[in-house]
Structures are given as C-alpha cells and as structure tokens.
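Q: Here's a chain of 420 amino acids. Please give me its 3D structure as tokens.
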Amino acid sequence: MNDKQYALKKDTEDPLKFFRNAFYHTPNEIYLDGNSLGKLPLKAKENLVTAVTEEWGKTLISSWNFHWLDRPNQIASKYARLLNLNSDEIIIGESTSIRLYQVIYALLQSKQFSNHLGTDSLQFPSDLYILEGIAKNESLEMSVISYSQENHAELKLLKKRIKDKPGIYCLSLVSYKSGYRYPLKLLNQWALKHNSIIVWDFSHAIGAITIDCKETKTLIAVGCTYKYMNGGPGSPAFLYVHKKLISLLSNPIKGWFGHRSPFTFSSQFNPSQTIERFGVGTPSILSLTAIEAGVDLILEAGIKAIEQKSISQSNYFISLIEAQLLPIGFTLETPLHPYERGSHVSISHKDAWPICQALLDEKVRGVKIIPDFRPPHFIRFGITPLYTQYIDLWDTVQQLIFIVSSNTYKNYSDDQPVVT
C-alpha cells in the first residue's frame, strides 16, 4: 500500500476520477487546501459570465423577477437535499459569522434554554469572537471548555459541562486544526437530555462527509460554502433551523429581506413566518450564482461516494505519514479512526512554517504543493475527493521527505504573511 504503484492503480480505478475534469487546474501544482478554499468549478465561471453579461448586462433590473429572487431558494433546496432537510428549513446568504450571531441571539431571546453560553478550546476563533461578544454585551455567563491537547475533544469533560451547566453550546463538527470530528448524534441526544441545544458549525465538514440532520437530530447549524463546497472566496453561508424552532426565534437583525412582504416597503417590520425571517439584506447575486455549480457536482457524485473516497485517501495518506514522516520528526495530529475525522489530515513539526514555504516553492523539484498552515506548528492537507488524486498524496510525502532530509526548509524565513 505504501508505494507509488498503489497510488497510480487507485487513481485508475477511481469511480469519481472524471469529476476532476470539472475544475480548473494549474500545471505543476498539487492543491491540498480545498479545506480552506475549494477550486474553481468550470461551470461556475460559465454561470457567472451569463449572470454578468445576460442578466445584469442586458435584462438589468428585470432580472430580479426573471432570475434573481428565486435563486437563493433554488440553491437552498439543493443544500437541503445534501443535509437531508426540508427545503423550508434552510436559508442561503450573509456570512457564517452573521448567521451564528443571528441564531445564538435569537435562541437567547426565545427563553427556550438557559442563557448560559458554552463552547470549547477547539472552536474556530471567529465563532468564539461572536459568542464572547454576545456574552459581554448581554452580561451573560460563558464557559470555554479547555482540553489538555489541541487535536481532539475530551468527550467526558464536554458532556459533564453540558450536564452541569445547561444552555446554548456552539461546536464545530470538524475541528479546523486537527480534523477531529465530533460524534454529532451522540452529543445532540446528550444536549437534549440535559435541557441544552448545540448550534453546529459545519464549515469544515459539509461537502466532504455525510451529514444527515434528521437522523442525527441536529436542530440548528450554520456553515460556509467556499471550502469543500467549492463556492468561491467569501461565498454566502447557510443557516439551518429545525421547523419546530423557526416560529420561536426572532431575527435580531431586522433587514428588509426578513420581512413578510419586503416589496410593500412598509415602515413597520412584519417578519416572515418562514425561515425567510432570517433574511437580512439584498441577496449577493453574483456570489450566489457562483456557488451553484459546486453543490451540483457534490449532488451528482453523491456524498456517500465522496466520503468513502475521502476515507480511502486519508487512510492511504496516514499510512505514508506513519511509515515515512514520523521517523523524520513529524507528528500525526489527526485521529486514525475514519469516523472520528473529517477530510483534512494534519501533521505538526517544530519548523512547520519554513517547511510550508518550501512546499509552495515550485523551484523545489519543479512542483508547487499548496497545503494549509495553522499556528503554531500545524500543517493541514485538505483532501477534496472530487479532484484530489492518490498520486498527489504520494508526491506530497516524497516532497516533505526531501525538504527535511536535505535541510531545504532552512532556506526559508520564519516570518509569516497575513493569509496562510
């Protein structure tokens, strides 16, 4: 299994291999950062040209009636299929941070749960900022559960905190650093048993692993669309709220697209009675147009097939890491069990940043490899099954061996840019 021929054979036999042709690729480049920004689907470019030249360029404002007003719901219905939701339980638009603020604040105002806010030390910083800001502004108690390590949650500690301090908790289904994956159904059931609710952030999970919101009893989730969903930089987020909760929650940002009849231009806010009550501003049509190709490809390939390839590729990559990288100073940070991880594999090294720079330098053996660095010492490799090849993973490990064994990484600075 730990050889190049195995990788080539797996690529030849891969039932999803033709989906790679649906994306834009750069020669002499291996892209393993789809867990941060997915590649450009060729169809997205085509859709954008149509939206700009035909809809905006020719039809102008009439495009709202002909094309644009229905576009958010059209795309939301596709995300509903992917997550096994009802189409009237999900809304597309705004950013993940805005969606998280809206729903956390709405839950607090609903008085359905205790006003204690909770999260843990694996949480994505932006989500943590939102929670801390709400807690401070509303003078609420908030707890951040600290674990002894950065690469996995300590479930006994997490469950004890929920039991002892019931309330509203926010967790990321897949941890952004290590790829650790929380037991979604188990924790949802535990929270409900103890008069609590978990708001999930699916950003690092959706599009790479199977998520069945009905089967897992998930009640609320937010997430971005620009990682494994290949929606484009800064593409709109989604918010899911179970139908039994929608009427109990009030949008704290009373924007005109949350109005029951926005085009009556009423001076009094009358909220929509559907998930549309969480609408805010005018939909970002060009960004919405860009994200549809990504979800179409995911639905065509089938999320279960995508997840199975992710598991197979991750297993292969981890086996290479264990055999060839651990002996030269790397540490594996991602769980071994397939259902305890998402679709990125993280390793760590004391010289992680210079090693990343060497990977990015095409002058090193003629290939540019794009990983993802997370301070202080994590190197993340996103496996996006629609376009990641097994041979990419083999070549990446060989490049890492060369960079470390030849001391090539010592030629690079420790200084880090703004975006890594």
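Q: Can you summarize the key feature?
A: The chain has two domains: 4-31+302-411, 45-300.
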